[in-house]
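Chapter summary example.
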Amino acid sequence: MTNWIQGKVVERIDWNERLFSLKVDAPVDPFVAGQFGKLGLEQGGERVQRAYSYVNAPHQPLLEFLAVTVDEGELSPKLHLLNAGDELMISSRPNGFLTLDEVPAGRELWMFATGTAVGPFLSILQSEDCWDRYESFILVYAVRHSDDLAYLELIQSIVAKHPQQFRFVPIVSREDHEGSLRGRIPELLKQGAIQEKAELPIKPARSQTMICGNPDMIRDTTAVLEEMGLRKNLRRTPGQITVEKYW
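The structure predicted for these 247 residues follows.
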């Protein structure tokens, strides 16, 4: 059973007219970078709730969540109306296994994200203890339009802080955007375009991958990686493909 506590919005950030972030003050239990919490609001006498990843690192004082409002959604349009000072409910206990503790050793760690699913990877990359785990980290962040690319300033600050260890591959599927690849992650992997942009290969003997995002991307990207010789990472049979599904 979910234990709910009250949180207060301290700040909101609007990336575009639909994509936004909320910074929330709430005394949740300690979490591990890559995990998620549940946000909730009362509606018609019932609590509407959805899972959202922590964007912030565990050591940072404010909780941060990246969300996109969906017209037919029950919760996201109401979250989109919140401003500093407004209150919402949040689960006190974190959940999820998209954490580095679940990923075997390797030389490179590839992070594949679509849309708001970049959140858990940003949490991991802001955690100082992550940088001793792998020689290289590659964030592959795919969106539909260029103004859907959130947290670019943060990502560039990570590039500046870890120039030899961190590589960023942005992808925009529906328009040309300078510095970004155009297309879908699975097809670009098949073509080798992502590997070329990152200047690194993907090989079972050296590569670990984490995937988070929409189900079609997860399914198709997993299939392409399996064609490359990688296999799903399970506790009983460790592999190179670690996946988080929220829906």
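To summarize the output: Helices lie at 76-79, 119-125, 152-161, 185-191, 193-198, 215-227.
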